[in-house]
Design brief:
With 171 residues, the protein is α+β, with helices and mostly antiparallel strands. The protein is built from three helices and 13 strands, in the order E-E-E-E-H-H-E-E-E-E-E-E-E-E-E-H. The radius of gyration is 22 Å and the shape is extended.
């Protein structure tokens, strides 16, 4: 069933809102993985219908792939525990080793933690995030950190102090 469903009660405001009953969850585990090294390879790999059905992920620049003898499948579920603007906390339960795909835009300033230990975040399916996660129950955290912010705050504070000093000396 790939049909969109119009939601009732929205038409009064002049808009029609549709629900996609087949949308992928915000985060989920997959066992199938294809590694690509270029945008062109990624575009070709994303045509595979298994990506849209949520059983296969296309990951940028990974040195290895999951064993090819494995049939790609959805291997677990994740639940969002803290949806903050700069942080995503998930509780995941995977039946097999694999990758958790997080349907939020990838950005190099995100830092990942798996059970409170640092872990890399990969770009998957052209623009979302993925993390390598072993079998079992795990807590994943993805936090956006702007490393230049501390330097900018220190520079701003120093300039303010210099201005105050100049004003004080002028009086």
């Amino acid at each position: 069933d790939s049909e969109l469903r119009a939601l009732d009660g929205i038409g009064r405001i002049g808009a029609i809102v549709y629900e996609n009953p087949n949308a992928l969850p915000f985060a989920y585990g997959v066992s199938g993985l294809v590694s690509v090294n270029s945008q062109a390879e990624s575009q070709l790999a994303l045509r595979d219908t298994r990506v849209a059905s949520g059983v296969l992920a296309v990951v940028d620049g990974l040195d290895s792939e999951l064993p090819s003898d494995r049939q790609p499948e959805r291997i677990g579920t994740c639940h969002l525990t803290a949806p903050l603007s700069d942080r995503i906390d998930l509780e995941c339960d995977l039946r097999k080793d694999g990758y958790v795909i997080v349907n939020s835009s990838h950005h190099p300033n995100f830092r990942g933690r798996l059970d409170n230990a640092p872990t890399p975040i990969l770009r998957a399916n052209a623009f979302v995030m993925a993390m390598n996660v072993p079998k079992g129950k795990h807590r994943l955290s993805l936090e956006y950190t702007e490393e230049s912010l501390a330097l900018a705050c220190a520079a701003s504070f120093s300039c303010c102090m210099l201005c105050l000093l100049l004003v004080y000396r002028a009086n």
